[in-house]
């Protein structure tokens, strides 16, 4: 049985939903349902009961789940050991790690410390950019490990959530005048804030009708546009506060943060828990200086 299938089944058990589990592991619902059926056929009994509210483990499923978990964890430990043995035969290998510029300096330092402590046999080379740029680096083989916001994790890569770390996203403008905006800064579809902007726009029907829409693929560019055009857009709370922008009350959303890797160099259980009180990052003016 493919270890990835077993990992996916564990996610079904954790979420209680095939749909939610499929979203988390970035496969279709149909593909995950087929994997589950194949495993149940192999076992000769049902692992889950299906209802309109989701799925729940059968008695047999409860009995076998601990063994599935042990296999998954053993596989991750074995892969980690294989990687360590490979690197021990050579000199310290370079490992290109792209941090995320949306995060505070303190949070990025914590990530750097966690990576260095778990990859003693490697020589990490750090860079820093926003989520879309990091995903481009990964796709172009310009990075081995990247930090991204939201659920835009590409297939065929290994990812782990940075536990305890969530980014609050708010609607911001250059003034506290909440009249219909003359300019709206809309994130490009590949930006992690795109879906949050859509939810904000749904709460403000007609906001886009008379406004000039500017598209942005960067949070730093969005800040500049908001200040230049007197527009409204969505930013992380830390960036909005650091740039003295007005934060619209009554709306906020959150994004999880992921470490995406070409190989499972680090497993979730080994990465440190983050404290949920980051210091605001530098203002746009300081970044541009």
TrEMBL record:
Keywords: Transcription, Transcription regulation. It comes from Pseudomonas vlassakiae. It comes from the Bacteria. This is LysR family transcriptional regulator. The keyword Transcription applies. GO terms for molecular function: DNA-binding transcription factor activity; transcription cis-regulatory region binding. InterPro entries: LysR_HTH_N (IPR000847), WH-like_DNA-bd_sf (IPR036388), WH_DNA-bd_sf (IPR036390). Residues 1-58 form the HTH lysR-type domain. The keyword Ligase does not apply. Belongs to the LysR transcriptional regulatory family.
């Amino acid at each position: 049985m493919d270890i990835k299938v077993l990992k996916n089944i564990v996610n079904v058990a954790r979420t209680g939903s095939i749909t939610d589990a499929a979203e988390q592991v970035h496969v279709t619902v149909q593909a995950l349902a087929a994997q589950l059926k194949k495993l149940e056929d192999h076992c000769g009994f049902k692992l889950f009961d299906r209802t309109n509210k989701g799925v729940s483990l059968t008695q047999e499923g409860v009995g076998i789940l601990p063994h599935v978990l042990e296999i998954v964890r053993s596989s991750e430990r074995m892969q980690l050991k294989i990687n360590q043995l490979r690197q021990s035969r050579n000199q310290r290998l370079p490992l290109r790690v792209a941090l995320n510029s949306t995060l505070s300096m303190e949070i990025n330092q914590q990530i750097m410390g966690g990576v260095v402590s778990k990859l003693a046999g490697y020589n990490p080379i750090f860079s820093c950019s926003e989520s879309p740029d990091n995903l481009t680096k990964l796709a172009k083989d310009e990075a081995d490990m990247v930090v991204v916001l939201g659920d835009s994790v590409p297939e065929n890569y290994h990812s782990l959530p940075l536990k305890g770390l969530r980014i609050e996203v708010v609607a911001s403008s250059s003034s506290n005048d909440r009249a219909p905006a003359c300019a709206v800064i809309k994130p490009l579809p590949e930006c992690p804030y795109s879906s949050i902007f859509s939810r904000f726009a749904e709460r403000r029907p007609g906001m886009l009708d008379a406004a000039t829409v500017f598209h942005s693929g960067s949070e730093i560019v969005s800040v500049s546009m908001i200040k230049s055009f007197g527009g409204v857009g969505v930013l992380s709370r830390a960036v909005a506060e650091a740039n003295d922008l007005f934060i619209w009350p009554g709306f906020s959303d959150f994004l999880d943060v992921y470490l995406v890797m070409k190989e499972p160099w680090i497993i979730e259980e080994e990465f440190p828990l983050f404290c949920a009180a980051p210091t605001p990052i530098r203002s746009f003016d300081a970044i541009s200086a």
